[in-house]
């Protein structure tokens, strides 16, 4: 960086390091600043504690009890967790979520990345319209998206079946037990490719262009530039989309819950862990066990997010 | 919309670039800001193959929505007996709208009103809280700062739906279930919003500007309200829009928290109609209503996103650099 930066930008580069004038500033302005800092932080923290930490703690507390027919709530330690770890329904849901992680997430993110890279070349006519059009599904509620795709999947009158029949083929049953997971993956991809594409595209726009020019002078083609310069430059944004997709996959609820009403035989009450926890809590009225499932799910998400972070960003750290 | 700068410029130019004294390229993300500004049109020709491929992919994203729009103009019979992307024998959009807004004493209008209320109250509140907190985390050095930030970052990983069950139990103990508060209060917390604002504020608000204002005798809150908040505007719009979408589209939380249909947002209401429609014989008349309602319910958000896209895209471009 230039000398201008080193003179003026010290506090930007390392916000936690005190700027050169800090000692003087601290004396005269320290207290009002400290006051302002906390006054601005505390409103969020209060709501955060009430809506996040307290429920989380309460869930942990609940999960250590078991309700019995006689004697009501009994402290049972980790029994609910042991039960969940032996529960085939829990594992089946987790297995489906794992398929999402290994099949749907990579497909979705690769498509999003390819579109973002294509738009970033500046060689696409009407790229602004393309960008917004691909993003639009994100603004569609999951409920509406699922409803809509549910109709599109319909075996007799669905649009997909109509199109396949019109060329003389027999349309597959997209809502059969074998296909419904793939159909769900498609809905989720449709909803979130655009969102991920926008995040990646926005990151690409902030990459300095002089590197591309240098690479082009050196004879690198567009694919080489994309692979060797652009993708490494937006690694942190890619990591962000991966982690959000991991969290999103574990949380799957809307789509299976709504498809359930269309294809009850293909989707069980334990299709995803989240759906299972919901059904355990509100159909079986077993909130203790549901809390344990939810807690365990949160634990898995944390572990996997952490592993993803370790694996992809040894050099970088989140801020 | 037409005055929006061309794409190359829109996302790339964070407000920092113009509002800041030249030379203060405090690239918080290690991005060298000097060379970031791109030529509006690069000296390249359009690539027809790339263009065609991308325009074809649009079919995947837009055809379902076109289908939905077309279905909302059909009668129930036509929905199931005519081709999905062609208009039906009768153009029934007006009839469907009348049916939609009069069915069950016009409850759909209530649902839309509820959706707007929940989404606006939550997103405005969430954006204010996230902006204040993110700004403080970015611009003040104080004890406990990194702990607070670590706590919030960790919270991004907690599945919100995993929180919903204990939240429901706590709210039912506090008699808040089946009230609008049950939707609004949990939606006020946006850890990602704080994260985004922290990254954005670090870059968009220059320290020397704050120093200058302090020397001029402005208090911290006045600086925040009159100077910083303006520089933060694109970031605020971004957080606001994303909070708006997440509440607008929320289904799980209201499904759990609300029993009274007059409090439902459109998502839960439509899902209930859909279940009634598929539930069995005689109720089939609802299909056109469900589809028309779905179409109507997505319009406001789509319009909001299109109109505000200039802001949220520039807000995102700064936020995602740091990722």
Automatic annotation (TrEMBL), chain A:
* Pfam families membership: BPD_transp_1
Q: Where in the cell is it found?
A: Cell membrane
Write the record's keywords in alphabetical order, separated by commas.
Answer: Cell membrane, Membrane, Sugar transport, Transmembrane, Transmembrane helix, Transport
Keyword hit for Acyltransferase:
no
Which SUPFAM superfamilies does the entry mention? MetI-like (SSF161098)
Q: Where is this region: Disordered?
A: 1-26
How does this protein sit in the membrane?
Multi-pass membrane protein
Give the transmembrane region(s): 34-58, 97-117, 129-152, 187-204, 233-253, 289-308
Entry keyword annotation includes Thylakoid: no
**First-listed, main subcellular location of the protein, grouped into a coarse class:** membrane
Cellular component, GO, one term: plasma membrane
Entry-linked InterPro entries: ABC_transporter_permease, MetI-like, MetI-like_sf
Q: Which GO terms describe its biological process?
A: transmembrane transport
Pinpoint the ABC transmembrane type-1 domain residues. Answer: 94-308
Per the record, the similarity remark reads: Belongs to the binding-protein-dependent transport system permease family.
PANTHER family listed in its UniProt record: ABC TRANSPORTER PERMEASE PROTEIN, DIACETYLCHITOBIOSE UPTAKE SYSTEM PERMEASE PROTEIN NGCF
Protein name (Swiss-Prot/TrEMBL)? Multiple sugar transport system permease protein
From TrEMBL, chain B:
Report which superkingdom the organism of origin falls in: Bacteria
Q: Where in the cell is it found?
A: Cell membrane
Specify where it is mainly localized.
Answer: membrane
Disordered: region residues = 1-41
State the GO CC annotations.
plasma membrane
Query: Which processes are annotated in GO (biological process)?
Result: transmembrane transport
Which stretches are transmembrane?
47-70, 116-138, 147-169, 181-201, 221-245, 285-308
Residues of the ABC transmembrane type-1 domain:
112-308
Report the membrane topology from the UniProt record: Multi-pass membrane protein
Entry-linked InterPro entries: MetI-like, MetI-like_sf
Q: What UniProt keywords are attached to this protein's entry? A: Cell membrane, Membrane, Sugar transport, Transmembrane, Transmembrane helix, Transport
* Family per similarity comment: Belongs to the binding-protein-dependent transport system permease family.
> What name does the UniProt record give this protein?
Carbohydrate ABC transporter permease
**Native organism:** Labedella gwakjiensis
